[in-house]
Amino acid sequence: MKAARWHGAKDIRVEEVPEPDPQKGQVKIKVAWAGICGSDLHEYLAGPIFIPIEAEHPLSHDKAPIIMGHEYCGEIVGLGEGVEGLSVGDRVAIEPIYRCEECPGSCDGKYNLCEKLGFMGLSGGVAGFSSYSVVPANMAHKMPDSLSIEQGALVEPAAVALHAIRQSSIQAGDKAAVFGAGPIGLLVIEALRIAGASEIYVVEPSETRRQKALELGAKEAFDPTAVDPVERIQAHTKGGVHVAFEVTGVPSVLPQAINSTRVAGQTLVVSIWETEASFHPNTVVIQEREIKGTLAYRNIYPAVMSLMEQGHFSAEKLVTKRIGLDDIVSEGFETLVAEKSQIKILVEAP
Hints:
The protein is an alpha/beta fold.
């Protein structure tokens, strides 16, 4: 079968690999659609970040070259021994988190904070940029019949956004700022609306993405290359937002997000970073501000799909391009590098 494998930075190859069979406790999936994530783009441009190179990942038992793709969905075509609750023909969205079930985080129910945390498609495994995938049964979440199969590829990024809102201190009626209106930033905007944020301010250099942010419910969207976003947010809110969401991974943006919050406000860092970022600690200390991180998601896929059934996180609003696997580098990764107007690119499995 065909699969897109990461060999190194700027080196992703569509290759022939063996078609997998499900082992005990696993399901085999005919992949339908897979999204290109910002984390995938980081690995393409500057990896390895999550991808294991010299030693195998302790849970996937895999190392580079690996099949990429962790935002994906498909139909179950095979069941391994002992699998219950799933059937051949079920349409499923994949929750791609490897966890050990033994460390304090896993045992406390916070499996996204597992000491050996890994992601299918980043840490190894037969993942979504392929014709067929094999995953542990607990990664496969049956989709409601009312959702299109394409929506299944958006469950994973929507889960990131909804978990970020749950981890934040946002309350109904609060004001928020979102720095970065890429796919996750836009999903955060929609999740903020669901949570009852009264005003949402967005900072994003792409005009297309700013317009999309306004369509999704932002009150104002500022171009940081043209205006001082902190000054504008502070002026519009008369003292700052309750919570700022940093969704860019750009070092210069972190202090802007912090400074956009009010006294005792919170900055939630959603991004995965390629480099370090700095800020003056006094901007936090003197106003008793809070900085908090959030990683992936946990116990949230059913809630995401329920919200999708109500019309939220719509593929029609977020998907800007659909491509075939053979074109994943030129029409996928390179397009995302060159065209900041793109939002979510989906890859159709061969």
